[in-house]
Structure formats: C-alpha cells, structure tokens
Specification:
CATH superfamily of the largest domain: MoaB/Mog-like domain
Structural class: alpha/beta
Strand content: 25-35%
Largest sheet: 6 strands, mixed
Number of domains: 4
Distance between the termini: 33 Å
Radius of gyration: 30 Å
Helix content: 10-25%
Length: about 425
Amino acid sequence: MTTSKEFSACIAHYDPNALPVEAAQDIVRQWAMPRAGDAQVERVGLRDALGRVLAEDVISPIDVPAFDNSAMDGYAFAGAALSHGGDTLDLTVAGTALAGRPFESTPGTDQCVRIMTGALIPPGCDTVVPQELVTREGAAIRFSTATLHVGQNRRLAGEDLAKGKPALLAGRIVRASDLGLLASLGIGEVCVRKRLTVAFFSTGDELRSVGDTLSPGSVYDSNRYTLFAMLERLGVETVDLGIVRDDRTSLDRALRHATESADVVISSGGVSVGDADFTRELMNLLGDVAFWKIAMRPGRPLAFGRLWSGERAGTGKSALFFGLPGNPVAVMATFYFIVREALLAMSGAARQPLTVIRAIAAEPIRKRAGRTEFQRGIATRDDDGRFRAVTTGPQGSGVLSSMSEANCFIVLEHARGDIDAGDEVEIVPFDGLI
C-alpha cells in the first residue's frame, strides 16, 4: 500500500504544503484504484444499468444487422445488370419486400423487387436503386445507371457489429444509446460494478441548514447541496452526514463514522490553519496524509490522504479522504479538477478527461505565475467559429453566483502570468459537467 512518504521519490517537486496541481493529480491517481473482487460486481436489468460502469466486456451474441437489408426505400436487383451497358436500365417489378415480410423468391435477371428500408435483401439481389431515381410505369421501372455501382444501398449482415465481437467494453459508463444497442442484441442484463459510496459533510459552527433561522454571524450551508449534486452526476451512492461542529470530538466521531460507512470521505471546511480547524490533527492520528495545500486558485487549502476507522492509522476499515476548502467556488473547482477523476477511477470507469477547448481571451486577465487558476468565464462563439472568453468579474472563491453566471472554467497554467486580450487560453465547458 502506497504511503505519503513514498511520494517524494516519485513525484517531481513534491511539497505537501504547496503542490502544483498536476503533481497533486498524479498523487491522487496513484491512490485512487478500482475496488477489486467479485463482491464489487452485480448483475442488473437494462433499465437499472443506465449510468452504471460495465464490469466486463459485452460480447455480441448476434450479427448486427442479422441479415443483408436495404438501407433505403427503393428497388432491389442483381447488380450484374449494371454491366450490360447502356445509360439506363429497364426492369420489371416482381413483388414487394417489407421489413419483417421478406420476398422469398429469386427474381429474374430482368426483374427487381420493390423494397422498404430495413427489409431483407431478396435472394439473388445485391443492389438497391433509391425510389427517387426511378421512373415507374405500371410494373416497369427505368433509371439511370450513371451513379450506381454493385452493392450500393445494401447493409451487410454484421456490418455494424459482428457476432462474437465486443459491443461495449468494461469500464464504460452506460449511456442512453448503449441501452438501445444492448436491447438490439437481445441482451436483457449486464454485469456492472457496485456503486462507489461517498460520505460527505460540512464543518463550521457558523453553518446552518436550509430552513433554520440565521443568527448573527451564521450562514446557510450551501456546500453540502453542491457536493450532493456533483456526486449525483457521477452516479455514486451518497451518505450526507450533515453539519459537523468545530470541536475535536465531533470531528473525530464524524471522520470515523464516515470511514466506516463509505469508500471515500469528503469534507468541506476545516482544512486551513485556524484555531478551530482540527482536521489536520486528526488526519495525523487516524490517517496518512499526502498533501495539505496545492498551488491552485481557488482551492489552495486541500487535504488528501487515507483514513482508518480504528484507534490509529492502519487499523480498521480504510477510505480515501478529500478535505475541501470551505469557500463554495473552491469546493466546485477542487471537486472537478482533483476529486472527480479519483471517484471515476475507483468506480472502475475508464478514464474520462475533461473537455478542453482553445479560446481567445476577449479581455486582459490578471494572473500570478506559480499557481494554476480556474477562473469562472463566459464563452461565446464568433461567426468564424472561434470561442472567445471573458471572466464573470470578481473571482473571489466565495462568490457562488459567479458559478451560476459562468458557462466554463478558464484554465490558466501554473507558470503563466498575466493574459492579454487576444491571447489563447484553455476553457473547460460546464455543459454536461455541472
């Protein structure tokens, strides 16, 4: 089992108090391994498979399509007739083939079969002429041969998916289109990984739950609702432990309970250097700490490591721990750029990097070199197809409204300084993410 002491040898510029974001991500990847064992796999029906992670490859039991069929409405005939010469071809209609109602006879060399999309290609036929290219008079049709070739407009058996070949690979998160694919193969159940369990809570004597009356100096706890929503989007099981007060006993109890009941524990608040922040003390007692701070804005105070539920580190059940900052925007930024990938990996999902798009800064952006910044931005697309991005204004990590106004993160690299209008920047769109 890897410990934090081993990281200094394998991570460049290792500093548990001020890691570059990329180094922090590397460390998290080393610890966030898929859960092993048959107990982590279950078989579910298709409708329960949506959003789940496939535990094994799905092998197609049939060819798709199962037979040669027509790609469009038209007339099926033997393509050899195209080589007989002439600019046009005259054929007699011998019958009709419908989807589910095939024409079973073999038409003659001067005959064709009226055919609908998806219908079985009749015996002896291998080519379909679209109906819009045909002139029909009674039982006779005529069409130009100039744009046709043998085999055109025919879908071959197994063309989409061959029998015995993988249809979906292990690690895939099942999407709506995948359910349709599985149903088309006659597969009613699949093996998926059991959902990852994530326990989360907020810390702070100043926090109040929604519905409570605010007293002087108190604020409503928004972070638990944000965390719940982000976790739901990842398809994990959630355990909401509520608000934990700023005292050592309460936090100790919460961390042990969370570790006992979950695979991953996420807290918000209580990882700075205030007099009432006991997380660091307890982490040193109950766990193994990889880092406390990262060179990131927002989100500098961020703890990561492993907790145990026993009386000391290394005893009892273990869980990974992410101690996120208390500021709302910092919670979202650290979740998407540090936590998200770890949860997907532990769920057994194939790696899914965030979508990154190149854009032009439409205004100057202040940036201090020596840290990675994730500024809230609004990206638009010009007539020339290029994206242009502006910030939402003040970038304080407590300005939660800026996340609602924004449609992307503007990602400013560690070594970069101020950005001039017209410079290229990277953006991570919120669409499909938040």
